[in-house]
């Protein structure tokens, strides 16, 4: 009997240790993907004086780049832009209204030479009315034009899920129309991220519809940060070509965005 009780205690202790290890692993992945700050935040890069002009990427989690490919970091690593300070003003979960609220501290304070704005995915997911989104995006653009001398680019939004026939992607097209119209009306540049990404999606019969969930995102983070899989491998494991969790970009999608942003920056640095 005593031996049986001792064995049971050992099993319980082992199970408890395993649970702690699993929770610790998940916690680490969650922290790295959702809670930690990106590299070169505005507070780090713009707090003092720098001899290099700043290029700011402003937006939500797709710009923060801790869950999925980091396009701002990729631009920072390009030798042709070595004369610039790349600032990551992405923040998980932000809508256009959220970005507008922190625009002065996170973007204007950097005295940027160029600003790339990628925001609106969460507005589409949350159902922000299009006219409210238009007003917020217009206010962002007008504030940047009045408070800085930066060249400004508005980037269209990648698809939500890769099945373009879904209701949410029909809704998303309205937000992308607003982005293009706002850029034209304000006289700033428009970068066609959405349009270029469509060419990288797989055959229509294989495209996965939008089905984002927090557990899926946490699983993607664990695969990458704990198991060492690339974001491309994480996406492929779910049958997706560009998105790790139906929202955030894999390495391939981030590379396309990086190339488009780099091409735009080249036009303003070497006109």
Automatic annotation (TrEMBL):
Gene3D superfamilies in the record: SGNH hydrolase
GO terms, molecular function: phosphatidylcholine lysophospholipase activity
Top-level taxonomic group: Bacteria
SGNH hydrolase-type esterase domain residues: 59-255
InterPro entries: Ester_Hydrolysis_Enzymes (IPR051532), SGNH_hydro (IPR013830), SGNH_hydro_sf (IPR036514)
Protein name: SGNH hydrolase-type esterase domain-containing protein
Origin species: Amycolatopsis albispora
